[in-house]
Design a protein that fits this description.
The protein is mainly α and about 350 residues long. The protein is built from 14 helices and 4 strands. A hairpin with a 2-residue loop joins β2 and β3. The radius of gyration is 25 Å and the shape is globular.
Length: about 350
Amino acid sequence: MPPEQQTPPSTPRPEAAQPLQQPQHRSEAKPRWTERLHGLGPVIGLVLLCIAGTLLNGDFATLDNAMNVLTRTAFIGIIAVGMCFVIISGGIDLSVGSMAALIAGSVIMFINWAGPASGSPLLAVVMGAVLAIVLGAVFGLAHGLLITKGRIEPFIVTLGTLGIFRAYLTYFADGGALTLDNDLSDLYAPVYYASLAGIPVPVWVFVIVAIIGGVILNRTAYGRYVQAIGSNEQVARYAAVDVDRVKILTYVLLGVCVGIATLLYVPRLGSASPTTGLLWELEAIAAVIVGGTALKGGAGSITGTVVGAILLSVISNILNLTSIISVYLNAAVQGFVIIIVAFLQRGRR
């Protein structure tokens, strides 16, 4: 072939490859900054709310009010810690409020029976507290088995048990309320009303549960498995993770948290009725997602959940102390918060 007809071999131009590498570096750096900002979002929101509450009402920035907010946060906060594990794993539980109501009613009936039967009111109260945790674990186990072995979606399972739990409480209470006997109620009252070092007992329990939850999520193999399942369940199965076992344990953990929250709640009023725990599931889910946990699962933190629970309680407290809007719209505010956060998270994995 003549030289003029030969096609010279094409050679790569190094300068052409250089521009393709730089955008890739920027695209990797951008999510890290957005994730950091997203993690700080709940804290910034809480700080701004506290400033606004102080400006709107001077009573907001008092120690007594702060303890009141934290005490009322404890119930939902403890449940939210367990709910955080469930949502990170890609699940959901709509029944926690009804579960708490049934556990409260069952504990009250048991203590009222065990007090005279055992001859020791203190022993009856202690056994009632243990019963609350056991019932929570059993209900959580039932959820886990139905979801994993029964292959039913968590939404459907917990939507069904939401009605079942509350219906049984209504049946046991005959449509009214179950109430602790006076002497037993006085003996049980310090669990809610007592303080240690000036901090109410429920707040101490909330702190302990949150610390244990954070250690489990971030420092154990189980916590890593929960996050892996939420990120990609199929990949987790290929990695030899016992997905069913982890999911069952996750719902058991949530049930235990509901039991702990309930045993703290019972002495507050000393009674349980069909309205006990109403909308607790909304508040717990809102606390988790406001705290930065991804709705699709795979990412979240106990610290963010705690901040989210406190933030929602602060909103409720501000509504109680001011007259910006009616306190009856508190649930509506939480609903709007869930929708807004879900909208902001729509692009997250």
